[in-house]
Specification:
89 residues, mainly alpha, 3 helices
Amino acid sequence: MGELKIKLPDTLERRFREYAFKRYGYRKGALTMAAEKAIAETIKKETSEEKDIKSRFFKAAGSWKGIDAEALKKKIYESRSRIRPMVKI
């Protein structure tokens, strides 16, 4: 299992500890469980926002070119797969 050492402002640390102990009780692992949940939710939220931005782009670009968004996405990915790097370092 990985380990992180982070620094937080005092007020944020206090609020996080209060949340963790309220949610998981005053037991061993409460801070770890709360941190795992917070990090996982943040990553999930960020990646779903990223996917939403990409889908809006393809939809807008497709409507501009008169192509369905899925067809445009397929066309772009196919053209990317044909491009090969000139030199591998």
